Structure formats: C-alpha cells, structure tokens
Amino acid sequence: MSAEVADALADGVAVVALESTILSHGLPPGRNLDVGHRLERTVREGGAVPATIAVLDGQALIGLSRAQLERVCAPDADLDKLSLRDLGATMALGGSGATTVASTASLAHAAGIGVFGTGGLGGVHLPLPGTTTTWDVSADLGALARTPVLVVCSGMKSILDIPATLEVLETNSVPVLGYGTDDFPSFYLRSSGLPVPHRVDDPAQVAAVVSAHRRFADSGVLLANPVPREFEMDRALHDRLLAEGMELVASRDVHGADVTPVLLEHFHTASGGVSLDANEELVVSNVRLAAQVAVELAS
Predict the structure, then answer these.
(1) What SS3 class is residue 14?
(2) For a FRET experiment, which of 10, 116, 134, 253 has its CA 20 to 30 Å from that of 289?
(3) CA-based nearest residue to 227, from 289, 149, 143, 285
(4) CB 166 within 8 A of CB 224
C-alpha cells in the first residue's frame, strides 16, 4: 500500500478502490491519464482517499504514485489484463498488468478497502451470431459472490446479456441496488428495461444496506448508478453499433477475454467519440458516489 492509503486505513478514513484496466485497456493514450487523474481528484473532493490498483514488476500496488499511474497509462505500457486467476502467476513471475473488477475487488478486500468505484461490471456474454449459447461468463461475477466489497458501477456493459447476468448475481446472493432509479442501467443507457430489486436514494441508505448485509453474508453488493442523463447514448445509435460489433467479433473469430475490447473499440471509433464521453462521465459519477458512500461507512 502507498503510505497515504495505509495511513488512511489505519486512521479509519474513507478509501475508495479504483481499477486500472479501464485506463490501460478502456481509454486511448493521453485521455486515459487525464481520466486517471480526474478520478483520483473526484474521490478526494468527496472526502475519501483514492487507491488506484495495479500490478507492476510482480508487486500488487494499492494506491499508485504519479509515476506509476503514468506508466499504467503510457502508450507503450503493454500491460496484461489481469483477472483474479492471473494475479498469482503474474506476481510470482515478476510480471505487470492492469486489474479488472474481479482482481481489483479481491486486492481491495485484502488491503481492507470495502468500497470500489468503476465503470461497468463484466457478465454473461451474448451468443455470437450464428450460435445460441455461450460459456463466456466474466470472473467478475464469481468474485462478487465471495468478496465483501461494495462495487459502484453503471450496471453491466450493454454489450453483455444483462438478464442472464442478473440471474447469476441472484444465484450468488449478491444484492443489486439501483441508485435513484427503479430500472437497472446498462452502461451507455440509463435503463435496460429490467427492474432493480431494491432502490436507494442517498448515500446513507446505501451504507445502511451494506452494513446490514455484512452482518450475515460475505458476498459483495452491487450499486447500479445510471450514466448522467446528458451523456446517455442515443438508443438507436447504441443498438446499431452493438449489432455491427457482434458481426465484427464473429467475422474475426474473436473469443474469450478479447471480445469486450474489440466491441468497445468499435463503439469508440464508430460513434465519433460519443461512447468515450459517456464512458468517462459515468465512471466519474460512480467514483463520486463511491466516495460519498465510503464516507458514510467510515463515520
């Protein structure tokens, strides 16, 4: 842990974990570093301490220095994308990588951090064109099932099978909360058309739910915060880009962990930057809310 994060945890000050995959793999060089600084600044403005997480040269880092954050965001960083299954091998072999939701949540919990703000959750992938089933399910869901961390996000990425993902969360006893909404959001869109099991309308209510859940369960809690209304993507544009992206994935025979980066890259390039703006603003909104809830939990 960085000295700042260690001191905050020792003193009972609110801390918010931040992932690094969104910076190294989700945003273009230049913009990613600006967003990384903006996210940390947003957490501080909310009264909490930011802890951006990554693995560099075999060491899991909880709270990056300015130089380390610049390394994660460098155009030539060539960092691996590390899910939970990859942490042990990468650390033992001296490798470097950016952490996903699953690995960030696990490292945050190991450090004693209970709140994590991010963009979108992984989930069950949609079947590729010409197929009817898929076994491609994000490790994020399994990690949430057994890691007692509050994850604040804008739902699953809308390129995923949201109904199936919600069913997996229900099976694993992960509470799903909608912040100021009765509809479950879907990343670029404020509503997936599916209801949330429980609605909360302020950080104090979120903190109360998390505290109550902790008394009898070790699973995570998912807080779904819709993208700010002014940055929501036009639904017709979104649906067209998703259909095009799925055809692109099928034509390139892309599978596994490579599917999401290819789809997101198509969204970013074919939308003329609309999806990038939405992505940045929703994650900023999420970490702002995460800081507010972390402060409530620490009080």
Answers:
(1) coil
(2) 10
(3) 285
(4) no
Whether 19 is a known active-site residue: answer yes
pTM: 0.93
Give helix 162-171 / helix 139-146 axis angle, nearest 10°: 30
- Is-catalytic flag, 247? no
Distance between CA atoms of residues 203 and 50, nearest Å: 18
Q: Which of 4, 70, 81, 157 is catalytic?
A: 157
Catalytic residue among 19, 40, 232, 280: 19
Along the 299 residues of the chain, how does pLDDT read in single tens digits?
999 999 999 999 999 999 999 999 888 899 999 999 999 999 999 999 999 999 999 999 999 999 999 999 999 998 999 999 999 999 999 999 999 999 999 999 999 999 999 999 988 877 766 666 666 788 899 999 999 999 999 998 777 889 999 999 999 999 999 999 999 999 999 999 999 999 999 999 999 999 999 999 999 999 999 999 999 999 999 999 988 988 888 888 877 667 777 888 888 889 888 989 999 999 999 999 999 999 999 99
Residues 6+ apart with CB under 8 A from 10: none
